[in-house]
Fold:
Amino acid sequence: MSPPWPTGKKLVHLDLKGAPPRINYLLKLIDLFAELGADGLLVEYEDMFPYEGELKMLQASTQPAYSKEEVMSIQEAAKAKGLEVIPLIQTFGHMEFVLKQDCLRDLREVDHCLGTLSPHRDRPLQLVMHMLRQVIDLHPGITTLHIGADEVYLLGEGEESRRWLRTSGRSVEQLFLSHVTAVARAVKTAWPHLTVLMWDDMMRDMSQDTLRDSGLVGLVQPMLWDYNPDLDVDKTVSLLEKYSRAGMADVWAASSFKGSTSVHCCVPSSQRHVDNTLQWLRVAESVSVAVHLRGIALTGWQRYDHLSVLCELLPVALPSLAACLQTLIDGLFDVKTQDKITSKLGISSVEVEAMERISQNTTMFPGRFLAEIIVDLNSFLNSEDVRYFEHNMFVRGWFSPHQRQKKMVNPLIVMQIQSQAAAYVSVLQEKLDVLRGEMSALYPDSTVQEWEEEHVWPVQASLQKVLEDTTACLRDMLPGQSG
Structure:
């Protein structure tokens, strides 16, 4: 058993670059986050922020961005529940939603990497500050800002960077630090009251002396992320101690409650994320008093980046989030902790795939019905009989591509294949209709369409093809019978 999470914020990360909830549902989620023990929100708007003027092109094209009024309502709902709001705006890496714009193409570090901003000349910093100013202006009460800066891929490979690096004594590390320091310094100059956070991964291999002399000391607080259920405690403690010795004693942690298992994961494992949380508790217990852990962000990635597929939707991840928050509060994950979680959510298990309502009188957590539908549909889609229908013995043995082409088939068995395919298509359509109705109430139509195309269509198309082929074949072989 570890002590509960030390004094500091427990932030729930809202990644809005994919599947942004409709505002009414999002406000219900904020209430739930507070009930589950969160202290704040780390809000990554990306293209869902209502940028204006020259930046209006950054707004999402597949669905309307949140309005100014909706952004304010998010903050008001959070404030009413005692939750701090911390906006996260990427300022170096993962700027795909910005740099995909043709008019900003020349600001890429390298042309084929849409995520990394070139750190040279004045325009990149001007662009970043223009973005930050609009976000900060619409968040008048904030005291903390996150400037991202993780996974700055291919830094140093652009032409201007290569020229910059030819000067003796310069390195990619210094190139990274020069831009981040410029951003942080500009933020502190414009808004002296703001505490600036940033992801730490680009600094992990830097020496203590490099960090101390970087200019970042006193400007930023690193947020160290690691979502592995087998997180290396000793290595992580050592890294935090290094940051502290370099002068950055105020640090943050980042765990995960969803969006870190695989890029296309549909249903999360609560235990996996709880294991990661328990490892972070061991880190917090092991660091010296010189390390000041200011809080932990429970990340809930919706995409790995702007151009990747959707990860798990929020409703199916709420049991995982509840489990992680309660584990932080209790300092362990035992039967009593699990009982608290299931009682709060009105379910029988912390694993969404095994949850059942405790009683008919139990209040459902927001999105519970959609979570049940997704789990059921995901189970159906991934059942061997359905997903690999074309590979079953009868299709491979009596309805192969060669047999279809030559029409050398046994009508009796083909009729059996046709009947089974039709049954699966019918069941799938029924489940899909229910999913569409529930998901469209919580998410924009573009999210419903994307989820359906990503998870349902590949299986549906395969079954439909077998159904069409068997029908056509039987029509040719048995012209007097209907398919």
Summary: The chain has a mean pLDDT of 94.
